[in-house]
Design goal:
Length: 180
């Protein structure tokens, strides 16, 4: 069964609108997470990894914003919530230290990598522009996850419970943003 198509979803246009909406919301949330981490850790302590990943998320967000505007897709009504929640998650994980900030990246990107792969599979070649953007973003998110692990994510205090909670929250944010 296709996990991205739900009863009552409509055709390809409705599917792609939902994908663009949730992906733009996700990239916005990611940008806010990094903003929170940088606010707490500061440029010096955050290191190159967080700054570079934040820049890449800003690029993704800008590309999804352009697609959203070009296709006249409404954003999720939850954007104000993601503005606050993303920043708070970033700040909270950074307060626990740089390794916990990296564990946050590891957890979020694990979920997003799977999310993008499922979206690409659901499109089945029917929207090349969106598929290309999804695949490019997925590759970057995969690289972010690997970099977070290399930067010490798995040595974070309470790594297992922290990443499990963040993965659960990320899945919930995806589910809500697709629908609201």
């Amino acid at each position: 069964m296709d996990k991205t198509r739900h009863p009552g979803d409509g055709g390809l246009e409705a599917l792609t609108e939902r994908m663009i909406r949730v992906d733009q919301a996700g990239e916005y949330g990611a940008a806010r997470i990094y903003a929170g981490q940088l606010a707490v850790l500061g440029e010096r302590q955050a290191g190159r990894a967080i700054r570079e990943m934040a820049e890449k998320e800003a690029e993704h967000l800008e590309r999804f914003d352009r697609m959203m505007n070009a296709r006249r897709v409404r954003p999720t009504l939850l954007s104000p919530l993601w503005h606050v929640a993303g920043f708070a998650l970033g700040a909270a994980t950074a307060l626990a230290g740089p390794r916990t900030a990296m564990a946050c990246t590891e957890a979020v990107e694990e979920v997003i990598e799977d999310h993008y792969a499922a979206q690409k599979a659901a499109l089945k070649g029917e929207d090349r522009e969106l598929e290309t953007l999804i695949e490019e973003a997925r590759a970057d998110e995969s690289a972010h996850k690997a970099r977070a692990v290399a930067e010490g994510a798995r040595a974070a205090p309470a790594h297992g419970p922290v990443t499990a909670a963040i993965r659960c929250g990320t899945r919930l944010a995806i589910w809500l943003s697709e629908r609201v």
